[in-house]
């Protein structure tokens, strides 16, 4: 009987099938105004009817049943108690949040939060705090805060043990400043004031978003130095990683550091985009275009990401898992059917599959 070739992907897959929990699925899921009635989101008229809410709950449940992610990072959560009950019904015995939505006028909700659900035990949960001294050193106020609290959950994953999972929803591109039309001003003057507010306010949002990413990454590096735990960063980044605002999340080099030191020490603290890792492990994926996760008018972009430390990079000899699949669920965006997708979400759902290396 011929022996299995350890370099043969099919042989590796077959051997892994005999190992319990040899596959892990991680997903990031923007729920889009997840708020149980009779509460309203942002405006007193925006309240789901009982039928609409049931439809939204069913749509989320259908996704969970079909794709079965093991760990999910959620964004735009107004009603964490309802979400906890929903995911529990679908086999997620562990759920956590680190913040709550703001309620004004008794029933209008603002400032949704992030959450995490897991099939595996969550051993610790924290809200990440930016370093005030570092914030001041880069020109921010020393009381700088994330626009939405960043959640860090230490999850006990099979084969790899404790893993720090970060869930984010970075500042949106919506301008921080807005000009309200003034009837005492001319039409041209109102346009000018709106233009100034958009330029300045848009840049303000960009500064906030980029600063959030930088201060978070510094916190992650410090945490990694202290704990040595693997890292997963997932969420709605509200920006593409390629345009310069968030590229520091994928920093892969350091000035004046030798190649030896870089490989020996630096690699431990770097994050990789799961899509890039997938392409590196699957030759067929090189010919597949990455799917957008958000559409606005005639434009599309990738806003939702999952970044991983080197324990999940097959190019790293000591890695434990490798990327075997990268999937973006977007049927509700490109081919929506009202009866099915009428209360879904305005984002694609990114789910990656990690396979145990043998």
Descriptive account of the structure:
The chain has 358 residues and is of the alpha+beta class. 29% of the residues lie in helices and 27% in strands. The chain has nine helices and 17 strands. The protein has a six-stranded mixed beta sheet. Strands 8-9-10-11-15-12 form a six-stranded mixed beta sheet. A three-stranded mixed beta sheet has the order 2-6-5, with no helix packed on it. Helix 5 links the parallel strand 10 (161-169) and strand 11 (231-236).
Q: Briefly, what is this?
A:
With 358 residues, the chain is of the alpha+beta class. It is 29% helix and 27% strand.
List the SSEs and their pairings.
Elements: H1 9-16, E1 23-34, E2 40-41, H2 50-67, E3 71-77, H3 80-89, E4 94-97, E5 102-104, E6 108-110, E7 113-118, E8 122-127, H4 132-137, E9 151-157, E10 161-169, H5 187-227, E11 231-236, H6 259-264, E12 272-273, H7 274-281, E13 294-296, E14 299-301, E15 304-308, E16 321-329, H8 331-334, H9 338-341, E17 349-356
Key features of this structure:
358 residues; alpha+beta; Deoxyribonuclease I, Chain A; six-stranded mixed beta sheet; 9 helices; 17 strands
Approximate helicity band: 25-40%
Structural class: alpha+beta
CATH superfamily of one domain: Endonuclease/exonuclease/phosphatase
Biggest β-sheet: strands ordered side by side in the sheet: 4-7-3-1-17-16
% residues in beta strands: 25-35%
The number of helical segments is 9
Outline the low-pLDDT stretches: 1-7
CATH class of one domain: Alpha Beta
Characterize the main sheet.
6 strands, mixed
Rg result: 22 Å
| Mean pLDDT rating | 91
The name CATH uses for the topology of one domain is Deoxyribonuclease I, Chain A
Known CATH architecture of one domain:
4-Layer Sandwich
Give the termini distance in whole angstroms.
21 Å
Inertia-based shape: globular
Number of strands: 17
């Amino acid at each position: 009987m011929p022996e299995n070739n350890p370099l043969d992907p099919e042989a590796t897959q077959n051997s892994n099938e005999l190992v319990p929990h040899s596959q892990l699925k991680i997903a990031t899921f923007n729920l889009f105004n997840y708020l149980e009635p009779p509460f309203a989101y942002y405006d007193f008229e925006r309240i789901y009817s009982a039928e609409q809410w049931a439809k939204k709950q069913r749509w989320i449940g259908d996704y969970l049943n079909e794709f079965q992610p093991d760990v999910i990072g959620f964004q735009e959560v107004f009603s964490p108690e309802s979400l906890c009950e929903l995911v529990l019904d679908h086999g997620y015995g562990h759920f956590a949040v680190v913040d709550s939505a703001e309620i004004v006028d008794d029933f209008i909700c603002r400032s949704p939060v992030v959450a995490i659900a897991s099939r595996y035990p969550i051993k610790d949960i924290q809200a990440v705090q930016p370093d005030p001294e570092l914030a001041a050193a880069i020109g921010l106020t020393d009381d700088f805060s994330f626009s939405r609290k960043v959640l860090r959950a230490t999850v006990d994953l099979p084969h790899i043990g404790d893993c720090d999972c970060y869930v984010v929803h970075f500042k949106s591109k919506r301008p921080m400043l807005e000009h309200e039309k003034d009837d005492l001003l001319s039409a041209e003057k109102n346009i000018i004031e709106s233009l100034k507010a958009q330029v300045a306010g848009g840049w303000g949002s960009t500064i906030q978003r980029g600063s959030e990413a930088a201060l978070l990454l510094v916190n992650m590096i410090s945490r990694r130095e202290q704990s040595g735990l693997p890292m997963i960063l997932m969420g709605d980044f509200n920006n593409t990683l390629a345009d310069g605002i968030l590229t520091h999340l994928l920093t892969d080099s350091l000035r004046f550091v030798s190649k030896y030191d870089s490989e020996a020490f630096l690699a431990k603290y770097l994050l990789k985009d799961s899509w890039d890792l997938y392409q590196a492990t699957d030759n067929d994926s090189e010919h597949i275009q990455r799917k957008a996760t958000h559409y606005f008018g005639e434009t599309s972009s990738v806003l939702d990401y999952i970044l991983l430390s080197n324990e999940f990079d097959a190019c790293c000899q000591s890695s434990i898992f490798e990327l075997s699949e990268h999937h973006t669920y977007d049927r509700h965006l490109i081919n929506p059917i009202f009866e099915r997708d009428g209360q879904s979400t305005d984002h694609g759902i990114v789910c990656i599959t990690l396979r145990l290396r043998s």
